[in-house]
């Protein structure tokens, strides 16, 4: 069975950098798309972007292009989402997702909570 | 890109059927048969319920069904049960090679 295990909650201050991770097991890592979805407190789901580890093809939502970086390390079947300078408005739960097709998300990680506050 | 449009809330009594709509444009919902639906219970990660407009993943009850007409997709839940009370989100592939979610619909089982 496919499992996505995300890194733990991170309390950060505005301006700090952050890289959260998503460890994938139970599937052929390079044959799936791995994406990230944001959910701000009390709000809906927002697709941030996605990567195909097989060839590193990466797509971003226009809303998140330039704001975050998505990457993957095939050797340890782990995907990453990183920020160079966090803002308070980045406070949210972040879910990693796995997809065979790019556009429907078969499995979800448990979420990583990122509170950003001074 | 604006979110797909869903009603903020719907409700129904146990045993009844409800339908949640998801309206987009010809650049997303209307342009592809790549609409998915997700169920999210409070405090939990979302779960895929429908993909490619009408298909159910293994293990999802056949009380859940999907359809599409033009730029509007729909999720129907028949034989409503208390456990169906949750938030539901639609999503669609777009001509920009990205994915758009709907704003979400809160289903209340009366």
Model description:
The complex is a heterodimer of chains A (118) and B (110). Chain A is mostly beta strands. Chain A is 0% helix and 47% strand. Chain A has strands spanning 3-6, 18-25, 33-39, 45-52, 57-60, 69-73, 78-83, 92-99, 107-108, 112-114. In chain A, strands 3, 4, 5, 8, 9 and 10 form a 6-stranded antiparallel beta sheet that branches. Chain A has a 4-stranded antiparallel beta sheet with strand order 1-2-7-6, with no helix packed on it. Chain A is globular and about 40 Å long. The relative contact order of chain A is 0.32. With 110 residues, chain B is an all-beta fold. Chain B has strands at 9-12, 18-23, 35-40, 47-50, 64-69, 72-77, 86-93, 99-101, 105-109. In chain B, the strands form 2 sheets. In chain B, strands 1, 3, 4, 7, 8 and 9 form a 6-stranded mixed beta sheet that branches. In chain B, a hairpin with a 2-residue loop joins β5 and β6 (72-77). Chain B is globular and about 40 Å long.
Task: Give me some keywords for this one.
heterodimer; A: mainly beta; six-stranded antiparallel beta sheet; 10 strands; B: 110 residues; six-stranded mixed beta sheet; three-stranded antiparallel beta sheet
- Major sheet size, sense and barrel closure of chain B: 6 strands, mixed
Overall pLDDT of chain A, averaged?
A: 95
Large-scale geometry of chain B: globular
Helix/strand/pairing class of chain A, anyone?
A: mainly beta
The number of helical runs of chain A is 0
* Total count of strands of chain A: 10
| Rg from Cα of chain A | 13 Å
Estimate the strand proportion of chain A.
Answer: over 45%
The N- and C-terminal alpha carbons of chain B lie at a distance of: 35 Å
From the N-terminal CA to the C-terminal CA of chain A, the straight-line distance is 40 Å
Strand content of chain B: 35-45%
Oligomer: heterodimer
How do the helices and strands follow one another from N- to C-terminus of chain B? EEEEEEEEE
Q: Helix- and strand-based class of chain B?
A: mainly beta
Radius of gyration of chain B: 13 Å
């Amino acid at each position: 069975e496919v499992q996505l295990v995300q890194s733990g909650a991170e309390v950060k201050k505005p301006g700090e950098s952050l890289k959260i991770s998503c460890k994938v097991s139970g599937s052929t890592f390079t044959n799936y798309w791995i994406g990230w979805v944001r959910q701000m407190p009390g709000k809906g789901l927002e697709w941030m972007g996605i990567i195909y580890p097989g060839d590193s093809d990466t797509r971003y939502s226009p809303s998140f292009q330039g704001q975050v970086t998505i990457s993957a390390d095939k050797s340890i079947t782990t995907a990453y989402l990183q920020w160079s300078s966090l803002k308070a408005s980045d406070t949210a739960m972040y879910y990693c997702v796995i997809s065979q097709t790019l556009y429907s998300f078969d499995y979800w990680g448990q979420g990583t909570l990122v509170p950003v506050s001074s | 890109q604006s979110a797909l449009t869903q009603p903020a809330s719907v409700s129904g009594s146990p045993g009844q059927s409800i339908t949640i709509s998801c309206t987009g444009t010809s650049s997303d919902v209307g342009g592809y048969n790549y609409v998915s639906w997700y169920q999210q219970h409070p405090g939990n990660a979302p779960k895929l319920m429908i993909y490619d407009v009408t298909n159910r993943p293994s293990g999802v009850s056949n009380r859940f069904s999907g359809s599409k007409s033009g730029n509007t997709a729909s999720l129907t839940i028949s034989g409503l049960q208390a456990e169906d009370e949750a938030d539901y989100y639609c999503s669609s592939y777009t001509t920009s090679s990205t994915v758009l979610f709907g704003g979400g619909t809160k289903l209340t089982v009366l």
